[in-house]
Amino acid sequence: MSKISASKTSAVSGSGLPADGDPGARGLGNGLKQRHLSMIALGGVIGAGLFVGSGAGIAKAGPSIIVAYALSGLLVMLVMRMLGEMSAAYPSSGSFSVHAERAIGPWAGFTSGWLYWFLLCVVVGLEGIGAAKIMAGWLPGTPEWAWVALFTVAFCLANFTRVKNFGEFEFWFAALKVGAIVLFLGIGVLAIAGLLPGGGDSPGTSNLTGGEGFLPNGTEGLVFGLLASVFAYGGLETVTIAAAESEQPVQGVARAVRTAMWRIAIFYVGSMAVVVTLVPWDHPAVAQQGPYVATLDHLGIPAAGEIMNVVILIALLSAMNANIYSSSRILRSLVERGQGPKALGRLRRGVPRAAVVMSSGFGFVCVLLSYWRPDDVFMWLLNMIGAITLVVWFFVGVSQLILRRRTEREDPARLVVRMWWYPGLTWVALAGMATIFALMAREAETRTQLYYTGLLTLALALTGFWLQRSAARREE
């Protein structure tokens, strides 16, 4: 990798970044409209983690999963607000990576940027595997790896085109996901009220308080549900990355963040409340089929499983497309700031095609490793990405704490979006993240992930710091 530049004059910090503009966005397009950003902000956090993965959390936490999702939802709202504040003040295709560089130094931008790129690429592979399993179930005998290859090539080519096309893809993908959740919530509310035709009588609170109670597995179950819910919210960063390629970056990201936060909380917390009210939390189908399918089956909705499989497939493909986009822009931003191989930063018609290929290719290699080395190398990759989202959020919190004070002093007009009750709620968010790290270290099921992610973070931080010092010595 090329050196980390530390010499350019900056009105904001000594990071080498200019006070105005985004070095990672130079030459990129600006075809995203407000409707694209608003729907990307909503759809970015609605994925398979909600539709399928939440079932494991319900199976452990029981009805208290509502509390778990509410608590993690509050944390997510704080993180989104902090990220929105910085991204409206300094729109950047590098998002939190650029903010970390401005606030803390080049080593922090290097660490958070490469961590997130690695996470996105591995997740691209995982989403491809999930989508391929659905397709292979519909078309028995077709190889799953071939489906993954098809999806990877399709979205790679889609991301070769102008950013406006990505925006249209995500707008309609996200609209379908949002529509499915709104419909589910509507059906659920009618069933809870006993007004659903053919849905039987209202269950009341029997599933919430009956049997082993609201906390069937005690605080241990609640902790597991909290950890599962935190990582289900991943993806909120996409809108701040995309905003740099919109027609009005500052206004666009400000509006998208403001409108998305409370809607996301309603979708997640509301969905969990509907599921555990209508279906016994320990019903095997909740974990095996996913909570949405289990609920619709329980209500006797025809073809519920196939309907939700279509929705889940759309969610997986949407996330795959968005993650290829986000990873290529993060990579491009790192290269433009002197933190990656220059060849990966080349643009063609406003698109970093080499970065798109690199990100897509790495994701497909992860898929192949799931076949070739499922028990060692692939598991090693999965463990390494286990806590990266939380590490990135921690960088967001620390960066906002520093940049807010600096921006208020030097250019307060940039603060179009402001973090609530600064710095109090920023410290609350950081304390919440530290608590989750401690809970992960306490639980055997998540301790390994925390250690692997910690080692990767430490290795990148040391590399970034060494490169930063080397660059500074050469320019003395």
From TrEMBL:
<keyword id="KW-1133">Transmembrane helix</keyword>
<dbReference type="InterPro" id="IPR004840">
    <property type="entry name" value="Amino_acid_permease_CS"/>
</dbReference>
<dbReference type="Pfam" id="PF00324">
    <property type="entry name" value="AA_permease"/>
</dbReference>
<feature type="transmembrane region" description="Helical">
    <location>
        <begin position="114"/>
        <end position="139"/>
    </location>
</feature>
<feature type="transmembrane region" description="Helical">
    <location>
        <begin position="145"/>
        <end position="163"/>
    </location>
</feature>
<feature type="transmembrane region" description="Helical">
    <location>
        <begin position="222"/>
        <end position="244"/>
    </location>
</feature>
<keyword id="KW-0472">Membrane</keyword>
<keyword id="KW-0813">Transport</keyword>
<feature type="transmembrane region" description="Helical">
    <location>
        <begin position="450"/>
        <end position="467"/>
    </location>
</feature>
<dbReference type="GO" id="GO:0055085">
    <property type="term" value="P:transmembrane transport"/>
</dbReference>
<dbReference type="GO" id="GO:0006865">
    <property type="term" value="P:amino acid transport"/>
</dbReference>
<protein>
    <submittedName>
        <fullName>Amino acid transporter</fullName>
    </submittedName>
</protein>
<feature type="transmembrane region" description="Helical">
    <location>
        <begin position="175"/>
        <end position="196"/>
    </location>
</feature>
<comment type="similarity">
    <text>Belongs to the amino acid-polyamine-organocation (APC) superfamily. Amino acid transporter (AAT) (TC 2.A.3.1) family.</text>
</comment>
<feature type="transmembrane region" description="Helical">
    <location>
        <begin position="378"/>
        <end position="398"/>
    </location>
</feature>
<feature type="region of interest" description="Disordered">
    <location>
        <begin position="1"/>
        <end position="22"/>
    </location>
</feature>
<feature type="transmembrane region" description="Helical">
    <location>
        <begin position="301"/>
        <end position="322"/>
    </location>
</feature>
<dbReference type="InterPro" id="IPR004841">
    <property type="entry name" value="AA-permease/SLC12A_dom"/>
</dbReference>
<keyword id="KW-0812">Transmembrane</keyword>
<feature type="compositionally biased region" description="Polar residues">
    <location>
        <begin position="1"/>
        <end position="13"/>
    </location>
</feature>
<feature type="transmembrane region" description="Helical">
    <location>
        <begin position="419"/>
        <end position="438"/>
    </location>
</feature>
<feature type="transmembrane region" description="Helical">
    <location>
        <begin position="264"/>
        <end position="281"/>
    </location>
</feature>
<feature type="transmembrane region" description="Helical">
    <location>
        <begin position="37"/>
        <end position="59"/>
    </location>
</feature>
<feature type="transmembrane region" description="Helical">
    <location>
        <begin position="65"/>
        <end position="83"/>
    </location>
</feature>
<feature type="transmembrane region" description="Helical">
    <location>
        <begin position="354"/>
        <end position="372"/>
    </location>
</feature>
<dbReference type="GO" id="GO:0016020">
    <property type="term" value="C:membrane"/>
</dbReference>
<keyword id="KW-0029">Amino-acid transport</keyword>
<feature type="domain" description="Amino acid permease/ SLC12A">
    <location>
        <begin position="36"/>
        <end position="467"/>
    </location>
</feature>
